[in-house]
Amino acid sequence: MREALIEAEKAFDEDEVPVGAIVIHKNKIIGRGHNKTESLHDPTAHAEIIALSAAANYLNNWRLTDAYLYTTLEPCLMCAGALILSRIKRVIFGTYDKKFGACGSVYNIPENNKLNHKFDVISGILSVESQLLLQDFFKRKRREKIPLK
């Protein structure tokens, strides 16, 4: 999870919402990503999607059946869908997303019996660090919108 936090810090430094993700396969990082929606002008450029794509390219296979994704924030509906499609084995995340979360808070996609794949979810790993980074980012954003007198 510390490597995912490093990715989230990169997003923070690039003025992107600070979410980072990594994919582990056989104890090796095979995919990394951090949010790039603003810089790429792409609503799908979430950390998880970028990390999954990098991992699939590394393995030369879209099926990530023995892989684990670590992400600093609970995946959204789009990312949870991509995780289902990738056949990921487990997702480990830092903090819950009470507005858009799809792995236990708002929705619980991994446990939906109508879908053809399920993955394990572990939450709360380095949650304080993940949450503080997000809070610092949004505090800074709010400050930038308020003109100084």
Please indicate the percent range of residues in DSSP E strands (runs of 2 or more).
Answer: 15-25%
Rg, alpha carbons: 15 Å
Q: For the largest sheet, list the strands in their spatial order.
A: 2-1-3-4-5
Number of alpha- plus pi-helical segments: 5
Helix content: 25-40%
- Poorly predicted runs are none
Overall geometric form: globular
The main sheet comes to: 5 strands, mixed
Listing every helix as H and every strand as E from the N terminus to the C terminus, the arrangement reads: HEEHHEHEEH
The count of β-strands is 5
Question: Which class best fits the helix and strand makeup?
Answer: alpha/beta
Average pLDDT works out at: 96
Ends distance: 41 Å
Secondary structure: elements and pairs:
Blueprint: H1 2-13, E1 20-25, E2 28-34, H2 37-40, H3 47-59, E3 67-73, H4 77-86, E4 90-95, E5 120-123, H5 127-145
Parallel strand pairs: 3-4, 4-5
Antiparallel strand pairs: 1-2, 1-3
Helix pairs in contact: 1-5, 3-4
Protein model, in words:
The structure is a single chain. This protein is α/β, with parallel strands linked by helices. The protein is 39% helix and 20% strand. A 5-stranded mixed sheet has the order 2-1-3-4-5. Helix 1 runs parallel beside helix 5 and helix 3 runs parallel beside helix 4. It starts with a helix and ends with a helix.
Descriptive key words:
single chain, 149 residues, alpha/beta, five-stranded mixed sheet, 5 helices, globular
